Amino acid sequence: MSAVLQEARPAVDVRGASLAFGRRTLWSGLDLTVEPGEFLAVLGPNGSGKTSFLKVLLGLQQLSGGQVTLAGHKPGGVNSKVGYIPQQRAMDEGLTLRGTDLVGLGLDGHRWGTGLRTRAERRRKVGAAIESVGATRYANEPVGKLSGGEQQRLRVAQALVGDPEVLLCDEPLLSLDLAHQRAVSDLIDARRRSANTAVLFVTHEINPILSYVDRVLYLVNGQFRIGKPDEVMSSETLSELYGTKIQVLKVGGQIHIAGAHSSLCEDEPHHHEEAMSE
Ligand SMILES: Nc1ncnc2c1ncn2[C@@H]1O[C@H](COP(=O)(O)OP(=O)(O)OP(=O)(O)O)[C@@H](O)[C@H]1O
Q: What is the DSSP string of 192-256?
């Protein structure tokens, strides 16, 4: 397929998608096209189906209805070029796996395999991914001994090493301090700019990534809205979505939400135990 044709197809194409567990419908009638290089934030309260949406894109969860393709391929297939960054959580201190081994896992397995021919090429790719996240200095240390921010940079490198066309991020900034939140989100943004990778970024808190976000998918209680941050993160739209009065204030380039919202959507997020990429 020519480069021109590859550029033309959407990174993610969701048509009439629905997902229900038993009698509970998380979302239905979801149509969404994400273009290469686009940054989409996925927001919503606990249990609204953000992680389930990522699982669908990873091929780990079947839709109840509708269809999804990633760069023209079905989710989870050997050809789907998807990188995944999980929630930050501390790795076992005794873990002796080195950073280079962790990043190399991003090239293994059939789900995201790339069919590399030589060991030298593999080493080159792993080295380049580690360098791109500024982790070269500690890449040969056991990962269990590294700080949370250093570990998260290596997870970003692991997600990038297979040259993904779509990068799925599940609350990748959780537990990081502000400086590291900034560093990790800058890395993700740099990738989509340099390689035209589409980014789908699940988060409870839009402010750390607000300057990068092109569009928002906001899920609440079986309803959703898709649009530019200013359109979706407005008093009118969120009041409609939550079915109660919500006030959105924009101060100093940040979005603050007042009213019933705090009790509805700023609970501690759940930590998902599945190691979906490892
Ligand atoms: N396999 C499953 N079977 C039944 N129910 C499920 C399954 N997976 C998820 N759910 C339910 O679907 C709902 C949405 O879960 P999901 O993890 O997608 O939410 P979320 O928006 O990511 O939440 P959080 O912000 O808390 O991480 C939850 O109520 C969850 O219990």
A: HHHH--EEEEE-S--GGGTTT-SEEEEEETTEEEEE-HHHHSSHHHHHHHHTS-EEEEEETTEEE
